[in-house]
Design brief:
This protein has 703 residues and is of the alpha/beta class. A hairpin with a 5-residue loop joins β2 (164-168) and β3. It has helices spanning 4-8, 24-33, 35-56, 90-100, 103-113, 133-141, 149-162, 184-240, 247-287, 290-297, 300-307, 313-390, 415-440, 447-454, 470-479, 484-497, 519-532, 561-566, 571-574, 595-600, 602-614, 630-634, 652-664, 679-685, 688-691, and strands spanning 61-69, 164-168, 174-181, 398-402, 458-463, 507-512, 537-541, 576-578, 583-586, 617-621, 640-646, 671-677. The protein is built from 25 helices and 12 strands. The protein folds into 3 domains: 61-213, no CATH class; 247-393; 458-686, P-loop containing nucleotide triphosphate hydrolases (Rossmann fold, 3-Layer(aba) Sandwich), CATH 3.40.50.300. An 8-stranded mixed sheet has the order 5-12-11-6-10-7-9-8, with helices on both faces. The protein has a 4-stranded antiparallel sheet with strand order 2-3-1-4. It is elongated and about 200 Å long. This is non-specific protein-tyrosine kinase.
Length: 703
């Protein structure tokens, strides 16, 4: 049988190791060990798929009609603005796909084929199941309101749309209209009818658009005709009510204004010159200086008079100067009058030009409006005639390329796909269950797992002893000394004795986390094995509360451990001897005091000291650690603590908590024992080649 160190080196079978790294070998082992569960899930999934295909699923049939979009139609009359063919670009193609899938065409299809009378689409005609969701809701709410005719129609249209699919072949103008129903004939009929309804709808839309265009154009032409007549009459009336001669006469007046502007400038210069001369003469006259006056007047007569020596020369000089002043005043007044006359004529001529210019602009605007209205009228009149011609030669933008044929085989459900999906689902569920069960596993299945989790040494593993009652266990061990259980106890004994080579343990405490982990059985087996080596062994029933030794040994327990600890009974009288195992046994009776207090007493230590002198090995079977504190108290007086962990039963948290409790009182657990190991379970979980209980080493044992 493999030793404990061999078991500790066994590779882990966990799919995920302590470092959160995926162990592929462990994952494969886990899946292989769960192969029957995976196979069961696969078989159930396949059976469910077959049942669905045979009894539940409704066969569906698909039929496809193809329609081609005519994007280049030859029209007799070019009428782009009123009615033109489709452009054929991708946006137009996508739009036509949505048109075919529209509720309007679906409603026409429902009416054309009387689908309101078909239970497949009008589900109100079906006999309702009492277990359907609608029936359950109606039962819970106290009644089911009868749907209106409009609601039934809308729901029928929705069901028809669900059965309809439209697709466009890439880089083409071809549409595929597919119908999927429970009847092959119905699918073909609905696909062909929808294609016909679509083509007819295109033609109807064009007719409606043409009629609308003709009506609108006729009304617009009538309105424009009236507007043209009104505009032409307004231009005539305005021309008759004004003095406007012609644009040429207005141009002549503009030239006259330009000439007057030149004459006014010349007359103004003359007037200013005369005024300046008059001011100079007046200033000289007022000065009385004849030479200065002669210089200013620039008159030869004044020069001659001024050099004359006649007596009346001064009077003649001033008289002549006054004549000159009077002449200059006349010239100034004449120039001023001429300037005023010219300016008056300029203003009058400007006023005429401005008035006639405004009239000309308004007249031209009226004539342009009349011409524009006439042009629009002519354009719309031509469009009206073209549209009236177009009304009789309309063509749809699409045509039927190929009609749908009645399908010979069902399209859904596809048996191969359903079975494949069922198998994939079954495999997935099986793998998930196996891996989930493994991930949720919170117990110990191998010595390595136990050692890795606790950090403590595993002394050995003890297989489950194949007996029904506790009393039969003793005869099994005695009668089968070469069994796997006996060999595992020998291995445990070796590991325990070698745990401290210099000072082999003499007082051994056996305990566990919780009850039913096999600690008492382990204590008995260790006592029997050590006794077989010729050692004097004492087995103490330290679990004063449960006292299960009576299930194994046929001896009275009127006096025992409690009596020895209280001093009422000597040790020699309390100890009994079992001839079958060859060991002494100190049973326990019902304590009058608390068991933990008895273990804490000085008498307990003194009792163990006395026993050390009398016995080679003392084994103390104590209660579980997580239940009562007895084991922790007693452990302070022993040499070794053997901790039993039940295979695939005790939770990891319980073991950790129990070991931590020993640590809090300063006691180190000597070693762990994985007890009650199921050899078949080891194989099932993939540990059979490491356990040695009937696996690769089964030939060494006689169980």
């Amino acid at each position: 049988m493999p030793g404990p160190s061999d078991e500790n080196r066994a590779p882990a079978r966990k799919a995920v190791d302590s470092g959160d790294e995926i162990n592929l070998l462990g994952l494969l082992f886990t899946l292989w060990n769960g192969k029957w569960l995976i196979a069961l899930c696969l078989a159930l999934a396949v059976a469910g798929s077959v049942t669905y295909l045979k009894y539940v699923a409704t066969p569906m049939f698909q039929a496809t009609a193809t329609v081609v979009l005519e994007n280049r139609q030859e029209q007799v009359v070019d009428l782009q603005n009123v009615m033109s063919g489709l452009s054929g670009d991708q946006a137009t193609v996508n739009t036509e796909v949505e048109v075919i899938r529209s509720r309007g065409l679906a409603r026409k299809l429902v009416s054309e084929l009387s689908l309101l009378e078909d239970p497949e689409f009008n589900r109100t005609l079906r006999t309702p199941s009492p277990f359907s969701p609608s029936a359950i809701i109606a039962f819970l709410t106290g009644g089911d309101a009868k749907p209106t005719a409009a609601a039934i129609l809308n729901k029928t249209v929705e069901n028809v749309l669900k059965a309809t699919s439209v697709s466009n072949a890439r880089q083409t103008y071809v549409f595929s209209i597919t119908m999927e129903t429970t009847s092959p004939e119905k699918s073909a009929l609905m696909a062909n009818t929808l294609a016909e309804v679509y083509i007819a709808d295109q033609l109807a839309v064009k007719y409606a658009a043409t009629d609308t265009a003709v009506e609108w154009l006729a009304n617009r032409v009538s309105e424009l005709k009236i507007e043209v007549e009104e505009a032409e009459q307004a231009a005539k009336n305005f021309n008759a009510s004004t003095d406007l001669i012609s644009p040429e006469a207005l141009e002549l007046l503009n030239r006259q204004v330009k000439d007057l502007r030149g004459r006014i400038d010349e007359a103004g210069n003359n007037f200013r010159s005369a005024q300046t001369a008059l001011v100079s003469l007046t200033t000289a006259r007022d000065s009385g200086d004849m030479p200065f006056m002669a210089q200013v007047a620039e008159d030869p007569a004044l020069d001659r008079i001024m050099v004359s020596e006649a007596d009346n020369a001064p009077e003649a000089f001033f008289a002549r100067f006054d004549q000159i002043v009077a002449r200059v005043e006349q010239e100034r007044d004449r120039a001023g009058a001429q300037l005023a006359a010219l300016e008056s004529s300029y203003e009058n001529l400007n006023a005429r030009i401005e008035a006639q210019s405004d009239d000309l602009v308004q007249l031209q605007q009226l004539r342009r409006e009349a011409e524009a209205t006439g042009t629009i009228y002519t354009y719309f009149l031509n469009r009206l005639k073209e549209t009236e011609v177009q009304r009789g030669i309309q063509q749809p933008d699409s045509r039927m390329l190929s009609e749908a044929v009645i399908p010979q085989s069902k399209s859904a459900p596809r048996s191969s796909m359903v079975l494949a999906l069922g198998m994939i689902l079954g495999l997935g569920v099986g793998v998930t269950v196996v891996l989930g069960r493994e991930a949720l596993q919170n117990t110990f299945r191998s010595a390595e797992e136990l050692a890795d989790h606790t950090g403590a040494r595993v002394l050995g593993t003890i297989p489950r002893i194949p007996v029904r009652k506790r009393g039969q266990m003793l005869s099994y061990i005695v009668n089968k000394p070469t069994s796997s259980a006996a060999e595992s106890i020998r291995n445990l004994r070796t590991s325990l004795m070698l745990s401290n080579v210099d000072h082999p343990p003499q007082v051994i405490l056996s305990t566990s986390s919780i009850p039913s982990e096999g600690k008492t059985t382990l204590s008995i087996l260790m006592a029997q094995n050590l006794a077989s080596l010729g050692k004097k062994v004492l087995l103490i029933e330290g679990d004063m509360r449960r006292r299960v030794f009576s299930s194994y040994f046929d001896m009275p327990a009127h006096v025992g451990l409690v009596g020895v600890l209280t001093g009422s009974v000597p040790l020699e009288e309390a100890v009994g001897h079992d001839k079958t195992l060859g060991i002494d046994i100190l049973p326990s009776e019902q304590p009058n005091a608390n068991a933990a207090d008895l273990y804490s007493s000085d008498r307990f230590g003194e009792m163990l000291a006395e026993m050390r002198q009398e016995y080679d090995i003392i084994i103390l079977d104590t209660p579980p650690v997580l239940v009562v504190p007895d084991a922790r108290v007693a452990a302070r007086h022993v040499d070794a603590v053997v901790f039993s962990v039940r295979w695939d039963s005790t939770h990891k948290q319980q073991v950790s908590a129990a070991i931590d409790m020993f640590t809090t009182v300063g006691v180190k657990v000597t070693g762990l024992v994985l007890s009650q190991v199921d050899p078949k379970g080891l194989k099932r979980y993939g540990y059979g080649q490491y356990g040695g209980y009937g696996g690769n080493y089964g030939g060494y044992y006689q169980n």
